[in-house]
Write a structure and sequence with these properties.
Elements: H1 6-20, E1 28-31, H2 36-44, E2 49-52, H3 57-78
Parallel strand pairs: 1-2
């Protein structure tokens, strides 16, 4: 990304959500960085999941479905 990397972007999104009391935006890391410590860092900064490159379409689809399902469940609890 030209201005900030995914970690910085996720931190900024989470900061703005907290600041404005907006609902959580689902974020999935899509990267070649797939070592355990890298994935842990993505999750620690607030990303919801991780999909490693090269992309396996079935894995990407499954991850999106899982993350969106969690988001819907969280929204239902708030409503």
């Amino acid at each position: 990304m030209p201005v900030m990397d995914g970690i910085a972007a996720a931190r900024e999104i989470r900061r703005r959500e907290t600041e404005s009391q907006r609902p959580r935006t689902p974020i999935v890391a899509l990267t070649a960085n797939a070592l355990a410590h890298q994935v842990s860092e993505y999750l620690a900064v607030g990303m919801d999941d991780h999909v490693a490159k090269p992309i396996e379409i079935a894995k990407l689809y499954e991850t999106i479905c899982t993350v969106m399902s969690r988001a819907e469940e969280a929204a239902a609890k708030v409503a």
